[in-house]
Design goal:
The protein is an alpha/beta fold. Helices cover 51% and strands 15% of the residues. The chain has two domains: 118 residues, Rossmann fold (3-Layer(aba) Sandwich), CATH 3.40.50; 210 residues, Rossmann fold. The chain contains 15 helices and eight strands. The longest helix is centred in the middle third of the chain and has 26 residues. Pfam families: HGD-D. One of its GO terms (molecular function) is hydro-lyase activity.
Length: 334
């Protein structure tokens, strides 16, 4: 099967129905042992230093991994994607556009997905058949999520990893299904590890994945990963069709739609606080203003850039924030 790169989560059901193997370029970039080489390639080709590291990483990953075709999301994701795909076109990469309409009207979402299906010459029936198959695998990630926030057996990092990987099913549906089943069996056999502080992670998936193990040093754990969970489509099984499934996907649409789901998860998971991760030079950092006004919960905003490890300043801020939360817990007992 021909590989096709993704700049973010898109209706992979369409691509698989068309005979492609989806490859999330974000995942290739950040999991590389030498991830910085992708950023260096982009900067050598003229990408400015004052640009999101993810965009540069996607560019480098695309060029270095024999990706000749990509889907570029023109609306509903990064504002720099349009510029990115223009440069990729110059490099001979074939680009297929897709948009999550800003209107967030069901009819508009349906029209965009129909255009996408027509672009790849696949039928609605075939796409729905693939969707049902994928949603059975997505249900496995829901089980891992429940083993995180209900059973306290899965770690925050495992929760992050297995859900974020569903953007492309690790480019191998059958193997990834087996991976998830094995992980569930392993996690179920553990003893619960109940954290004193239950954290939620919101914002784009982090460059600094060590944040999960770091907070565990201070009796805290992430029991909610917002965007990663949305990549796994936890409500997909309830959707009548692919149009409804991608209409109910919170990540690409307006922040008020996203806030409704956040409030629900804060209550259901009994969160004590939220860490809001934003990427340097990203327009989504401005969301922090709205989120702090809308959510009645302590929120700490941290920012990542090129490093894939937490810096000393961010570690100090996280430690101080968790210490404050622990003090509040103790005060409530008195």
């Amino acid at each position: 099967m021909e590989k096709i790169g993704l700049t973010t989560t898109v209706p992979v059901e369409v691509l698989i129905a068309a005979g492609y193997t989806p490859v999330d370029l974000n995942n290739i970039f950040i999991t590389s042992d030498d991830y910085s080489k992708y950023i260096d390639i982009a900067e050598k080709d003229g990408f400015p230093k004052s640009l999101c590291a993810w965009i540069k990483g996607i560019y480098g990953a695309c060029l270095c991994n024999n990706i000749n075709e990509i889907v570029g999301v023109m609306e509903g994701d990064c504002s720099n994607t349009k510029a990115l795909i223009e440069v990729l076109k110059l490099k001979g990469i074939k680009v297929y556009p897709f948009s999550f309409p800003n209107s967030h009207k069901k009819e508009d979402v349906k029209n965009e997905i129909i255009k996408f299906m027509n672009l790849f010459n696949v039928s609605f029936e075939k796409v729905e058949c693939i969707r049902k198959k994928l949603n059975k695998i997505r249900d496995l990630s829901k089980e891992i999520d429940e083993l995180t926030y209900k059973s306290n057996k899965a770690t925050g990092f495992e929760n992050h990893l297995y859900q974020v990987s569903l953007s492309d099913f690790n480019s191998d549906i059958n193997n990834f299904e087996t991976t998830l089943k094995n992980a569930i069996n392993d996690i179920k056999n553990r003893k619960p590890n109940t954290p004193k502080i239950r954290l939620g992670y919101i914002g784009v998936p982090p460059m600094t994945a060590d944040i999960y193990s770091f907070v565990e040093k201070f009796s805290a754990s992430f029991v909610y990963n917002e965007v990663q969970r949305e990549f796994a489509f936890p409500r997909a099984i309830e959707a009548l069709d692919i149009f409804e499934q991608y209409y109910d996907y919170t990540y690409p649409y307006d922040i008020q739609f996203r806030i409704k789901e956040l409030k629900k998860q804060i209550k259901e998971r009994k969160l004590d606080a939220i860490i809001h991760y934003t990427q340097a030079f990203c327009h989504r950092a401005v969301d922090d203003i709205v989120l702090k006004q809308a959510l009645d919960i302590p929120i700490l905003n941290i920012e990542g850039d090129k490093l894939n490890k937490l810096d000393a300043r961010t570690k100090l801020r996280l430690e101080a924030f968790i210490d404050m939360l622990l003090d509040l817990k103790e005060a409530e007992k008195c």
